[in-house]
Amino acid sequence: MNRFLTIIITLFLLCPVLVFSSERLPRPQKITLDNGLVVYYYQNPELPLVSFRLLIKGAGSAFEPAGLDGLANFTSDMLLKGTSSMTAEQIAEALDFMGARLNFTSSEEYASAGGECLSQFLPRLLQIASDCLTSPAFKEEEYKKELAKKIDTLKAVKDNPAQALRQYFKKAYFGQHPFGHILLGTDSSLEKMSLPQLKKFHAERFRPDNSIMAVVGDVKQNELINILKTTIGRWPKPGTPAPQASVPPLPSLHGQKLVLIDKPDATQSYFALGSPGYAQNDRLAVVASMMNTLWGGRFTSWLNTELRIKRGLTYGAGSSFQSWKTGGLFMASSYTKNDKIGEMLDITFDLLKRARDKGFSPEEVESARNYIVGQFPQSLETNGSKASAYLRLVYYDLGLDYYDRYLAEIDAVRQEDIKQAAVKLLPDKDYTLVIIGKASEIKKLLEKFGRWEEKKITDPDF
Amino acid sequence: MPKKVAAFVLSFFWMITMLQAAFKKEDIKVFHLDNGLKIILYEDHKMPNISYFTFFKVGSRCERPGLTGVSHFIEHMMFNGTEKFRPGEFDRLMEFSGGANNAYTGDDFTAYTDWFPANALEKIVELEADRMQGLLFDPEVLESERGVVASERRMSVENDNEAIIYENVRSTAIMAHPYHWDVIGWMSDILGWRPDEIKQYYQTYYAPNNAVLVVVGDFEATRLLELIKKYYGHISVQPPAPPVITVEPPQLGRKEVIIRKEAQTPSFLLAYHAPACSDSDFFALSILEKPLLQGESSRLYRRLVRDEQLAISVSGGCEEKIDPFLFMIEVKPRPDADLTRIEKIVDEELAKIVEQGLTESEYEKALNIVRSDFYFSLQTNSGKANMLGAMEMLYGSFDRLFTIMDSYLQTKREDIPDIAKKYFNELNKTAGYLVPEGGQP
User: How near does any CA of chain B get to the CA of A19, in Å?
Assistant: First the structure.
C-alpha cells in the first residue's frame, strides 16, 4: 500500500511544467542524419544502459479524421505487430530476449516511440525500432486481434471508475475539438475503423523529416552514429511535403457543463473539474506551476489538506495543469463515499474562491519556490527522463537553455503574481464538471450545482 | 570561455563522473549506533539531492486477527504529529524545505522514503529521528485517519474486481500464516482497532534496533553520521519484537473461489504455494516465470492472448518474501471467455515446464531480463536506497544486492523441471474466478 498514489499521478501530469526548471539538464550533442532526422545525444556511462525517445509531429490523436477516435494510437500499436522482415511474435521474442523495452504510443499532438536496454543490445533494439517505424506489415489478422483486444479494453475501463472518469471528462470538456478524441478509441469509432485507414495515417504522417530523437546512456558518440546510420538513418524521407501539424485553438468555456455518469454498483463518487490552462510557451507557466503547487499540486496543498488531511474524506485529492502548443487545461479531481460528494464539491469550490479572493501567504510562496527547485533535479535523473526533456524543449521551441531562465524566473515570482495567476486560471463560473457515481444516491446532493446531463456507464461510448 | 577549453573541462568532468559512477560494495559505509540503529551510506555527488530511506522490520506479517492492517495504519499516523512537531508539521516542513516523501507498507517491512535538496539534510534527519519514537496519536486525528484508510480500502479493494479476486484467492490459499490477509487489513479491523493497541504496536516495532537507515546522494558521510548521532543517539532500545512462528501447513487439495458480481469482464487468478526468498528454489521459479508469463513472447501470452484469444493480458510470478508465499498467475479474460478452458491451458503449459523445462534460449532470455531489471532499478538515488534497504529487510544484509545476480546464475537450467514439479501440482493450487452476474464460469 502506497501512502499516496494520486499525488504521484498528479506529479507525472505536472512533468511538462516541472521538467523545465532545473539547471541540471546537461546540454546534448546534436546529430543530423542524412534523411533529415535530428538526434540529441548525451553520454552517461554510469550503468550499462541506454534509453531513446522519438517524437513524430502531427501524428497524434488530434489529426485523426472526425469520428475515428483511437486511430493514431491503433496505428502506433500496430507497429510492433509485424514488419516486412519480422512477425509480431519474432519482434516480441527479440525484445523479451534482450530484456529490452520498446513502445509506440500517441498523445494529442504527436506520436512517440521509446525504448531502453542493456548497452550491448542497443544496435539490435534500434534496428527493430526502425524496422517497426519504416516497414510495418499491417496484417489483417493482427489488426483483427488488436481490434478485439481494444473493444474488450473499453469494457474493462468502464469497470474502473478512475480510468473511465478521464475519458468522460475529455469528451465533455473538449466536445468536438480534436483534443476530445479518446486515445483508446470508442465503441462506435472502433466499429467504423478499418485497416486501410491505419495504413494511410502511417504513410502520411510517420516521416523522419517530421521527427526528433534523443538518445541518452552508455554509448560512445561514434558508435551511436554508426548504429543510427544503419538503422533509423535509413528511414526514407518522402518526396511530398509534410502534412500540416497544427491544432485549432482550444475551446473557451462559457458557463457550466455538468455531466453525471450513473454507475449503479459504485460505492464511491469520483469527480473531475476542468477549465482552460495555458500553452507550453506561455510566460504564465512558471507562476502557474507555483500556484498549482500550493492549491492542489502536492501533499500539503490546500485541496489535499482540506479533503484528506483535515476531513479524511478521501485517500487523495489533487490538481494539475496540462499544456500543449495552443493552450492548456486545469483539472482538479478526487473521490469519496457517495453520501459525501456534495460536501467534497462545496469545499473544492470554496477553496477555488479563497485562492482567487485572497491569494497565498508569503510563507506559502517561499515554500512553493523551495519545493519546485528542490524537487526538480530528480525529475531528470534517469536516461529516459533526460531524453524526454530534450524532445519537449525542442518540440515546444523552448530552447535548450530554458532551465536557466526558468530558475531565474522562479526566483523573481512575487506573492501578487501568484494571486493574479489564481484569478486568471482557477475556474469561477465557467467550467466542466463530470461525476461518476451511484446516481440514485447522489442525485439529490448534486441538484444545487445546476442542471446535470445524465448518462449510464453501460451506454456505448463516453 | 573559449570553446575548446570548455570541452576539455567537460571531458574532465566526465572522467570524474565515470570514476564515481560504478556502484560498488566497497563504497558503501555501514555504521551502528549503540541503540541498535543500523546506518548504510552511499555518497553520490552527481546532483545536489539526497534520498533518505528508513526501513522498519514490520509489516502485515507481524499482525494478528483484530489488528490486521495496523502496520499500514501506523504508516499513515507517522505523518500525523509528534510531541515536537504537531499534526501536519512533518509534511509542511518537509515540503517547505523542498523535500517530498512517500511511504509504503508491505507484508514484511515498511519504508519511509524522503528525497530532498542537499541543504535540507539536517531538518530531515531531525524530522525522521523525532517520529521514530514520539508519535502523538491525537484521538481526533486518529479517527480522521481511520476514515482515510477505510476510504483507501473501499477504493483499492472493494471498487476493484482484480483486487477482490486477489484478496479472496490469497486468503483461501494461505490458511494459517499471517500472509492470509492483505496489507490493507479487513474492514471490520480497520473500523475497530483500539488506540491503546495501536500505540503498543508502534512502540514494539518502531525502535532503533528494529530499523535500518539508508542514505544515498550528495552528503558527506562523516558529517551526516554526526547529525544522526545527535538526533537519534538518545532514542532507547526496545525489547526485541516477537518472532512470527506460524508455519503454513502443506495444502492438501485444490481450492477454489467463485465470486459472482456485477462486472463487464470476468477475472481469473491462480495461486500456488511458493518458497521464501531465502530458499534456492525461489530463484528457479523466478527464472521460469519470465518465459512462462512475462512479455508477449511468453508461453502463456502466446497461447491465451495470441493464439486462442481467450484473454487480454497475462501477468504474475513469485514475490520476494521472508516466509513462503505464492506464485500467482493472473489472466485478464476476454468478456465471454470460458474460464475453465483458461485454467486447462495454464495447466497444460505448466505441465510442459515440469516435463521438459525451459529451452536454452528461454533460459538465456530470463537471465537477460533479470540483469536489465536489476540495472533499471538502480538508475536513481532512490532506486539504490530502496534496493539496499529491501535487501536488509528480506535477506538480513544489504550486501546481498551484490551477490544476488550470482544466485540467478547458479540456478542450472537442468534443475528447473524438478523444482517446477515440487510446486506446480493440483494439490498446491487455488483457483479464483470472478464471474459477471448471470454468466457461466
Answer: 15
